[in-house]
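Hi V.,

You were right to ask for the full record rather than a summary. Here it is.
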Amino acid sequence: MTIQLAIIGGTGVYDPKMMDAMQTIEVETRYGRALLTQGEFKGNKILFLARHGTEHGTPPHKVNYRANIAALVKLGVTRVVATAAVGSLNEKMPPGTMVLLNQFLDFTKAREATFFSGGDAGVIHTDFTEPYCADLNAILVAAAKNTGLEILTGATYVTTEGPRFETPAEIRMYKLLGGDLVGMTNVPEVVLAREAGLCYSTVALSTNFAAGISPAVLTHHEVLAVMAENVEKVRRLLMEAIPSLRMERDCRCRELGSSILI
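Predicted structure:
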């Protein structure tokens, strides 16, 4: 089976009504098992991967990112659109805003963050000048325009270890370093996708202003509530973009990636 497109869903994005002919697929890789949903949308076969599990039972620092990406490679995926709920450090990206990522800052601490750990995997240093696929981002921008949705571009995502939220002091530091958004899942997902030669883009949905910026103390329930109110915009964007994502790739993502052991 070869399916070119996969959607990795964060909090609240997965909606079974988006796809027809759905079936669950379990893929075994050398990094562990990954559970995916295969379906069709307007004749386009796609895969959906619930990052935190179908019951949202896996915290961000425990997600088996390597198994997830390796499973996509094994199934023939070439393009990945990820979604993520994020906190905003940038007043121009208020709650409810959709944003495409451009760069990231990595503040994770204890994750398996690479396929290349020496031994049979080798020692490979992958270029990350452009972490996200510019061509894929352009397709998403065009889809937003076609559907009358606003989507911002050029954001820097700060990845923290979690599962706790950040302190106001940390948020001030991240903002000084150029961060626009903060979340707990984009690294190592984006790293592994590039190592595997996949085109990868993240649609971030701002759900709140981060600690110290927001006047209120943040709760996970509030993040879920805002996500639920705005997730339909993300779904509309994805449904508009999916037909264009079948086109042949004309970018450097495949060249920048390397062979991985799956």
